[in-house]
Amino acid sequence: MRVRVLGCSGAIAQGCRTTSFLLDDDVLIDAGTGVGDLTLDEMAAVNHVLLTHSHLDHVASLPLMIDAVAARRLAAGAPPLHVHALPGTIAALKAHIFNNLIWPDFSSIPSAASPLMRCTPIAVGEVLQVGGKAVEVLPAVHTVPAVGFAANSPSGHWVFSGDTSRNPAFWQRVNQLPVAMLIIETAFSDREKALAQRSLHLAPSVLAEELDQIAPAEAGATYPIYITHTKPAETGLIMEEIRGFDERPSRADAARHDIRWLSAGMTFEL
User: Fold this and answer.
1) CATH class of the structural domain 2-269
2) Model confidence over 69-100: pLDDT tens digits?
3) Whether this model's pTM surpasses 0.90
4) Strands (DSSP E) along the chain, which ranges?
């Protein structure tokens, strides 16, 4: 399985694109502004979009992408674009984006029987079969209904936390999986820790406590951890604070982690 990082920033700025990952050629995980780097052919090849939650930085490109390739998909007789999301996320999309005020309701265009987009509700613990890939829905803790995802591959699971705060249920499940790579958010620096707590995001000191829940290395749970969703104005400080806690663990028995920095344009073969 190939994973292409289209966007992994917590906001926009020059060179910063918001969250979206392309699995192989046909499955998007989230649809942030990074989708805009795909060609029309690449966008037309996407048949499934899996959304972690309804916030704009994760869905902004979905209505624009459908519009960009609508004529091409209709001419080719392509099936509807399947949007897989929690019921609350689907309700938010219908109420606030695909409402014929902000954007056309593509779930009824050109007709309700044969639409350009079809929304399918998902639930935590469900394993989705999309594009020949098995993707498990993981729990997340955020200000709106939210999930993470774990996509199975020959090398193990590609795990994405989604936007989340402290999340014991997430680690309980992740520790049961053969993980090849973990992508986890850290939106704010510790300078903004109070804001992170109010908005249910992670800050470096909280991330350190979360990573302590990873099963010990002797149990086979050693894998690279990529940091995503940093706010552009905070990225340098976040990286410095994470590097600091990992180089100087607070406990003698605390594990060192293989922490890396995610950036748009990266591609992984799993």
Assistant:
1) alpha beta
2) 999 999 999 999 999 999 999 999 999 999 99
3) yes
4) 2-7, 20-23, 27-29, 48-50, 81-85, 117-121, 127-130, 133-139, 147-153, 156-160, 179-185, 224-228, 258-261, 267-269
